[in-house]
């Protein structure tokens, strides 16, 4: 059976009479329509806001708009934002006379008069921001301070000052003071009479309220008419303490006393009395009256001990306002001491210990109901989650943790319904998430973890629906929204299980989620439902937390998804959906602001915080009667005009709760009132009654700081008077300043926006938002105008220029008029001096002219001599260069035979002499090269020619060539290296000459019995840093003096001491050495001690270095991949021997050099000769050579012309050409190669290099013929042993072939096999092949591997092991280094199906 509860109507009928009377009073208050809202809402200013005390005795607004509040502890000035408190200081005579302020008056001149208790009277000097005490007047010979209990200024501008015993009348124009003593009138009534109030009526009569009755003063006759209380006369004054006097619109006078309100009746002898009566809510709230003020609407506002009464002078009824703890914006204290009607309709109330209360008709102040758990008729929980309107003025309110409440809008009271859940036996109230009142007046309640409730408000019964997995219950107990559609179906949003649709007639549920079920549409959302709305077409819009928005079309039962991807939704977390009266669809998101849907494009546009929204989290959206969209967020409430998209934000100044609002908690009632629930209660308001603020506040300047120090007005200060009234600011040059300002807005100053500019400095207004200080630095001297303006709460700016003040920046001393006058004098004096000097110069001009002519002649002569000397130097250098070029051919003729003799000569004696010849020839070549390099250094043409090689082996070989010199001079030569080899890219020629130069110097300056050492070491830091080779060449010679050491690398530097002169050279060797080292990126340093020797240290970064690998241990040395030099009589890889020698044509004009070439090559090739290019062309046509070797410099036709002719003739263009020249310039090499030549050699050169180049070109030509002619020639095997060297090489090759697959093959085994030491074999192979033994072994293995790759069916790994390589990867790396392709690529390009294909021959 459904549970029953008492209906809210029955609850009201049981209220007691006292409560009924209070309700009637509240209904009467609700009938008041003044000040924009149905209720009078007060905001308070207390010490928490900056006031000096909470008891406010008097309030006044001055002509500038500032509010002054006299309190029990000081005078406070309020500009709408900040309080300035003025306190009495015993040490400062210009401070407030006493702290308790009891009266205030601003006279017609703008002077503010202040009356204090115990401190007397003073007025405020606003220009200097000080108080001036008024000590009395000479006419009455008083020197004691005058106490001012009351102030007034009459129509004649006279000041009336009420004090103890009488009052003063001050005539400011005549500076006359009249004192009136009233003690004789009241001697029998009180001990000391006190003036409490003044009032001038329309007839200009002065009424004076005292503590001894009412006085009517006739100034002409200086007589009084006294009105006092008489116990036996009911028409007399009801009380003798008259504190307030006012006159209504009809001219009737009212007097507030300590015993009620009195009205002077016609005839002015009797009074009508209005007193408080218990049980009569229309009577005044209290008889003890402190103040009476006539409002602009004709009513009297009466401040009493028990509250505020608004007295209607027509009906004589009062609306009474007292503090109400159930109201957020009620009076803060019942005792109202003062009332002031300020500009713009704002009413200020001064209370006892409650601060100042402000009633502002301009403020859009929202009503707020907070949680009051201890109030039986209050809101039991602060978190309000849902609303539902039952009837007009009757609202159901759902809370989280407080259950269901019934709110009576008229009384402001709550009733609580105690609904129990079957799922929760703890007795706690329901955590309500959603409310929906359907067409049958059933209230549907969605809860968290307690399912769905159907509540009947009329009967108080309810039914609970809990998830049980059947179609008669919801799919989940966490329900976030409940909505009845136009068909009467109830839509229920769950937290993860999609949406349930309840048919109230059948009591069955249908669930839509993202799981596919046969016969039911799949909802394309994640199931965490947050919002729902039905549009005018009957389509249901569903919002989810994180997966966007889905629209359900009942006509076809299908869903359509809208999200960030397909429709530009700003955020997939949808919290609220609204369809306005124009048919627009608005979607509120989580952090993405508001989205407006455009059906034509099926896209959304956005309004976010960047567009002016208070916050991007939109919890609820509602539309008011005017079509304005209202939203609740994490930071207040915002309104949006759908047409203009203008946004207004409302926050704490508008009464909006500080805490965030709650998801879905919002509603529009039938009367147009809006409700929004949050974490601190709920706000409600009627948008149509909110005031529209069109006034723009004026701006007041409040402070000036110079160099971050507050400026006090003074004669020599930047300000002559207080800045709010000052017209000018005077600053020195270079002073930085800041001006503070504030808008006099007492409605919502936090919403003011500011803009300022400095005319003469700023080009446009600086819009600074809410910043209230302008900063300026580095202002040039001159006159400026500072202007500032503000916008109001609604963003409306003034059309006027705003508040302005002149700023004068004084120039520095050097920019003053006196300084400029001095500058004029100095300039004039300078001109006179210049004129004098000019005349003097004219006198000396003729005398100096001849000297100038002579000087020019001398300079011209010196220039010509310098040009001649330079030209002579260049001719010398050119001559030496040409001579050096001519030297290179004879040197080549010396070196080549010497190398050949060393290769064939076994006689040690003869070999020693030949080596001497070769060493001196190489030395001569080195000197020639130094001359050429010196010219290149002069012309900055030195470049590196990097080639691969064993850098350490190369240096060892270069150093070992000095062994015979060391033997002859009896100097010990030692060569050591920490690494056996290092393959790298380096310039062989330049490295060799570096070693030669340093060793030559070492032997030159080391005596007999000395020692020369060559040491090499390798440093390797990490993978990011290259290998570095350190070379040290040390001797024990004569050394170098310390003062000479820094200059030894300079060009042409030669030491002058005897031992040096004896052995000195050209002076350019070390200079060239340093240049070569630096070209390699290295550096060279020297250490020397005279008499002990010299050490040169070279640090050389190595390019492309290769060091020994771990998997090469079996080879005992690192193998390097370099091109094999020519091994003339050896067999080819296929083992075939040429049955016909290739024909080579030699074209050389030097007959001796041509003979040497022929003699060197005729063992390998058939040689044809020609003595110039012309004869060479004829021999090329007639002799059909297979390759041509030609010199470049020849008569009739040079080598380049010959190469071009050969390559352009179709009869000879297939013939390879090698050019020889004595010039090493790269430009000459480029010209030769561009002519079509296949290769290029610079004299001198090694014969083996030429032979290898010839062989490689012939092999390459043969491979081309094989590829294109597809011809196979089989040659018989022919082995010719022409020398012991060839026989040795044949033996080595045969042994390597026999041990081909042996990975342990080593140099030691090979040397034992041929019967030589390892050192002898190393030098022999290096001499014959330019390869070390291990390099030669690897070369043969790679050649055999290439044959196997081309002709066999083995794979790469098999061939690697067959040819004796440790691992396939190591084999692949070496093979690619040799042939520039991987083994697999080589197989693809060369392996043929025809297994019988044989090697071709040379043609």
Outline of this structure?
The chain contains 22 helices and 78 strands. The chain has 1403 residues and is α+β, with helices and mostly antiparallel strands. The chain folds into 7 domains: 19-362, 7 Propeller (Methylamine Dehydrogenase, Chain H); 419-512, TolB, C-terminal domain (Neuraminidase, 6 Propeller); 529-607, Beta Barrel (Thrombin, subunit H); 699-815, Immunoglobulins (Immunoglobulin-like, Sandwich); 942-1107, Heat Shock Protein 90, CATH 3.30.565.10; 1140-1267, Response regulator (Rossmann fold, 3-Layer(aba) Sandwich); 1275-1403, Homeodomain-like (Arc Repressor Mutant, subunit A, Orthogonal Bundle).
What does this molecule look like?
The model is unreliable at 1-38, 139-143, 1058-1064, 1108-1139, 1268-1281 and 1393-1403 (pLDDT under 50). A hairpin with a 5-residue loop joins strand 10 (150-153) and strand 11 (159-162). This protein is α+β, with helices and mostly antiparallel strands and 1403 residues long. The radius of gyration is 58 Å and the shape is elongated. It contains 22 helices and 78 strands. The longest helix has 88 residues, at 817-904. The strands form 19 sheets. Strands 59-65-64-61-62 form a 5-stranded mixed β-sheet, with no helix packed on it. It has a 5-stranded mixed β-sheet with strand order 67-69-70-72-71. The chain has 7 domains: 19-362, YVTN repeat-like/Quinoprotein amine dehydrogenase (Methylamine Dehydrogenase, Chain H); 419-512, TolB, C-terminal domain (Neuraminidase, 6 Propeller); 529-607, Thrombin, subunit H (Beta Barrel), CATH 2.40.10; 699-815, Immunoglobulins (Immunoglobulin-like, Sandwich); 942-1107, 2-Layer Sandwich (Heat Shock Protein 90), CATH 3.30.565.10; 1140-1267, Rossmann fold; 1275-1403, Arc Repressor Mutant, subunit A (Orthogonal Bundle), CATH 1.10.10.
